[in-house]
Amino acid sequence: xxxxxxxxxxxxxxxxxxxxxxxxxxxxxxxxxxxxxxxxxxxxxxxxxxxxxxxxxxxxxxxxxxxxxxxxxxxxxxxxxxxxxxxxxxxxxxx
Length: 95
Hints:
mainly alpha, 95 residues
């Protein structure tokens, strides 16, 4: 399976869980199928935890940016510009 590093870690874990379940459906051995389903459940758990960390990190970045922005937002156009800037700030790795 090719790994797409541009996707969030939570999405990559969910994709791997789905792949494990798909493979498990094709297996005839109950023990092997059960092991793969357990692995899929572990990937689901890791996806859930990663998503929580991603949300927390995004929230902290947004708060940090909002504190550093001294200008008051006026309307929806300003909000869209602020959200785009926050996304660029996040992708650049500056925290």
